[in-house]
Write a structure and sequence with these properties.
With 325 residues, the chain is an alpha/beta fold. The chain contains 13 helices and twelve strands. The protein starts with a strand and ends with a helix.
């Protein structure tokens, strides 16, 4: 459960702006609440545990609270140990909160989670690399980081990682997503298998299972993945595109679109790109990066992750993902 910071100040516009800034910080390890009236805060605190109160100095000594720690917002730049100058930048206020409340974990958590990436990869083509590339990417990241590979490709079976038969990770994931966030977050780990040093969610009992996941459930999936604390990198394999890809793309830090030297697929590529640009925000569209794939032939005996990592394709994969690490 996240800790709670409450902001109490009679300047309603100020507390709302400060709260909004804090909420928009990536992986900020606190829930933020704002109050412009002391009575409302006291009523809330009577029923809920508040970790830290960031309070207008004018309220000092006016009432008693159960909060673990209180820091007072002051309009005087000369600060005491329990004071924070309210007219400095919001970023500096957050830094002051961490130092003066002895909440070093606020920094550590934020810095750790900034390193985490959610990486999407898809291909409008039907080449053999469509499933191999996400596996190679996950394996390359997995050399130094804790990685989860989650496939939304209905025909993906995790063949390079020798996934056992009768294991339908995606189907189970979709089932649990319909039980609400609490159950879903709790059961996510049961859908994973550890393979070659990475966690893998793969397999689909039937391709129509993917159509059972609604946009709401896809948003829930992305929300839980964003809160995941076990993995440094999450690779989402969209295959050649699913009906939920546009929704899931919104949670990705970078998305790779594979492009092959084959002119017969150019029209499909252009159509998919137009559809994506129409349905996702412009700033997110800029995160989609086209990767021109090399002409490479994969022999049957090379279809093992260890040998592929040593191949020219493995070197190519390491090279282009290193640009975003």
């Amino acid at each position: 459960m996240k800790k709670i910071i409450a902001i109490l100040h009679n300047d309603k516009a100020y507390v709302e702006k400060l709260m909004e800034y804090m909420k928009n910080q990536d992986s900020f390890f606190y829930d933020i609440l704002a109050f412009s009236e002391a009575e409302l805060f006291l009523a809330y605190e009577n029923e809920n545990a508040v970790t830290l109160l960031l309070c207008n100095e004018a309220y000092k000594g006016k009432f008693s609270v159960k909060t673990e720690k209180i820091l007072y917002l002051t309009d005087a730049p000369a600060e005491e140990d329990d004071q924070i100058f309210m007219y400095q930048s919001a970023k500096q206020i957050i830094e002051q909160i961490g130092k003066k409340s002895n909440e070093a974990r606020m920094y550590k958590k934020a810095e750790e989670n900034k390193k985490k990436q959610i990486v999407g990869i898809f291909s409008p083509y039907e080449g053999c690399f469509r499933s191999i590339m996400p596996e190679l990417m996950a394996a390359c990241y997995g050399k130094e980081k804790n990685v989860l590979l989650l496939s939304m490709n209905p025909f993906y079976d995790g063949m390079l990682f020798t996934a056992e038969e009768d294991w339908y990770g995606i189907s189970e994931l979709i089932y649990y997503s319909k039980q609400g966030k609490g159950i879903f977050a709790q059961k996510l780990g049961s859908c994973m298998r550890r393979r070659e040093g990475i966690d893998l969610i793969a397999g689909c009992e039937h391709y129509t299972d993917l159509f059972e996941m609604t946009e709401k459930e896809c948003r829930l999936l992305m929300e839980v993945l964003l809160e995941d604390e076990e993995h440094d990198v999450i690779v989402l394999d969209f295959g050649c595109g699913t009906c939920l890809m546009e929704e899931a793309l919104l949670g990705c830090d970078v998305v790779y679109k594979l492009a092959y030297p084959n002119s017969s697929y150019e029209r499909r590529d252009n159509q998919l790109e137009r559809q994506l640009l129409q349905s996702i925000p412009k700033e997110k569209a800029e995160y989609i990066r086209t990767v021109s794939m090399p002409e490479a032939e994969i022999e049957g005996e090379e279809l093992q992750i260890k040998s592929l990592l040593l191949s020219p394709l493995g070197e190519f994969t390491r090279r282009f993902i290193s640009q975003d690490v």
